[in-house]
Amino acid sequence: MDTRHPPFHRLADLAESKLGEADRAMAQQHVSDCARCSRDLEWLSHMIELMRTDRTEAAPEHVILRAVRLFSQHQAGAQPKSADMVHRLIGVLRFDSAAAAPAFGLRVGADEATRQLLFAAEPYEIELRTSSAADGATVVGQLLGPAGPVDSADVELVGADARVQARLSDLLEFSLPAVPPGTYRLELRLDQAIAIEIPSLHLG
Ligand SMILES: [Zn+2]
User: Residue 60 falls within a domain, yes or no?
Assistant: First the structure.
């Protein structure tokens, strides 16, 4: 059995039922044994569905359901809170629609300026959607993970020429004001106890 993780574009093809019989069987066998790829495939399926059906309506139901499920799964092992210690996590890019397989990228083709990104910062995930327009680049997103009850959560985007902030909603969604194109650092903070950083985010 092939124990290597299939590349994201292969999982995207699997999610879209575009693989041939042999490739599909091999990929499916790996996914059935691999929690990471299984989760990625599930997320890709959600994203494909989102791109097919969603025209940026607020909080699609499946995203909410997934958030609720992730919360309930992890609630037992909630992060310890400490006033004087911030637990820092770094978000690692796991998916970028701009770099995905051409077949997957075509799904985004109807709205070229929009880009989907997924970052993992175990046990959290951050989903981002960026779009570019004449008045700047905007970032909307959602934090998924074992947050449990959160009293305060905010997100900050810091660049050389601009710095914007937003609070997260009850569903841990956020929408940042437009910023000039450039490279930014994004930081999410939960209850002064957890900070999740995406060190380099290219916008515009
Ligand atoms: Zn795998």
Answer: no
- Cα of 6 vs centre of ligand 1, distance in Å, is 6
Please indicate, yes or no, whether residues 122 and 190 belong to a single structural domain of this protein: yes
Residue 3 lies inside a defined structural domain of this protein: no
Ligand 1 centroid–CA 185 distance in Å is 29
Total structural domains in the chain?
A: 2
CA of 35 to the centre of ligand 1 (A): 7
Q: In this structure, are 90 and 157 located in the same domain? A: yes
Residue 95 sits in the same domain as residue 158: yes
146-184 burial: b if 16+ Cβ within 10 Å, else e:
bbbeeeebebbbebeebebebebeeebbbebebbeeeeb
Helices (H), 75-201: 102-108
In a domain, 43, yes or no: yes
* Ligand 1 centroid distance, CA of 30 (Å): 6
Q: Please give the residue range of the domain that contains residue 25.
A: 8-53
For residues 204 and 183, the answer to whether their CB atoms sit within 8 Å is: no
The reply to whether the predicted model has a pTM over 0.85 is no
Ligand 1: distance of its center to the CA of 36 in Å? 5
Q: Which residues surround ligand 1, an ion (CB under 5 A)?
A: 5, 34, 36-37
Give tens-digit pLDDT for 9-61.
788 888 888 899 999 999 999 999 988 889 888 888 877 776 666 554 455 55
- Quick: pLDDT tens for 110-131: 445 678 888 988 888 899 999 8
